[in-house]
Amino acid sequence: MTSQPTAPHILLVDDDEDFLFQHKIQLEHAGYRVTTAATREEAEATAAEVKPDLAILDLMMEQHDDGFVLSHHLKRLLPGLPVILVTAVTAETGLSFSPTTSAERAWVGADALLAKPIRFEQLTREVERLLKDRDKGQGASG
Amino acid sequence: MDTLRVLVVDDETGMRLAVARVLSTYTVRPDESDEHAVGFAVETADTGESALEMMAGAAPDILLLDMKLPGISGLDVLREIRERRIDTLTVMITAYATLETAIEATKRGAHDFLPKPFTPEDLRVAIRRVVRHLAVQREAKRLAEEKRQVRFQFISVLGHELKAPLAAVEGYLQIMKDGSAGTDPAVVARIIDRALVRTEGMRKLIVDLLNMTRIESGQKRRDLVAADLREAAAAAIETVAPAAAARAVEIRLEAPERAPLVADRGELDIIFNNLVSNAVKYNRDHGRVTIAIDRADARWRVRVSDTGIGLAPEDARRLFQDFVRIKNEQTRTIPGTGLGLAIVKKLAHLYGGDATVESEPGAGSTFTVTLKG
Question: Domain for residue B304, yes or no?
Fold first, then answer.
């Protein structure tokens, strides 16, 4: 769509088809390249192939900790990859998850946490911030 | 219920001491089959006034109340207990247990009587009766509370299940409004398709919910007529035919020429539509669905078999519960409300039967519904 081949590449992972489709449209409209995956396995294979600049993961997929596990795997695969975890109170578990302290966030292994329903401006703001931080980090080390 | 508090109200000191002495060493097993025993902590009062004062704090579990007291009478105390909604079980102690006083006291909420004079054994028998009653009462209360919790849980899950499709549709409308959807007709068409899929899912959930509520409340006017299971199966096959054709799933019906049953046709349609549409939804492309209707143990037996993805044993056990949908890679994109099979089971119970499943993961499942008649 409007994204350029050089635009930052985002890996978007959720088992909710509508969440994926809507956020892909919006992120592409905002100028990013987007690849989607619906399962942890698919996400890991895709990440190895496209080497995204940032990942947005749903915390709860088929297994309730898929988001955590995927976050850890992706960070091992692509060191320095910024990860945004999206959480929701699921109907099945009634579980609410929203780490608020920095210790809790470190434990989660994500760079940002957003609770569903997420506002798109909020998501793009986090994406921009994390990509900027990453570029700064790379500039300093390289 | 390890120690029950007993308040003895009598103006005779000897009587109060005697009751306290008997009960201090007495234990009761509220449930005969249970080893668990209950003991008693006895408090005493010499007037109705002081008894009411004591009960204003924490009400005793059991009140042994003399009818004849120096100030206000036992009947007055009973009235106060009722007015103040004090939660206690009262045994009236009375020297002249006439029918009139008994009726009067019962009207005012006394649970039992203990005529004076009474032996320690009489007292123990009366107390044992009260304790058993208390145990039954508490169990009923516990069950009612449990039911209430299940109801809350149901409503909470329902809220989430209704919110999810609404959020999806809102998301699509928002994308179209803010222009990020662009003008690609293929993208726009898919947005509209998805919004329709989600609203349809929501509509089905509401229909299922209404059906379930009617079944459970028992208020649904059931139109019991001479129906036929073969006809109901044929109607369901016709309903799912387009979905089956789209995936080249073949549906077979093996049933006697006539399978008569006095039933509500709407209820039979719900049963067959759920089973047959599931058998198609969870099948593989080019798969097969077999609906077999026969008689076994004075019941009709409907078996709907598919050649689909099947179920793990632990999933099969949960399958008939409200809102249970088996979540895995194969079921991810299959729409469903999670109430269909719960409704089928409840309906089967209405017909003196049951709904069960046998399954082999990867090979297919057979759902069996039995209907008496």
Answer: yes
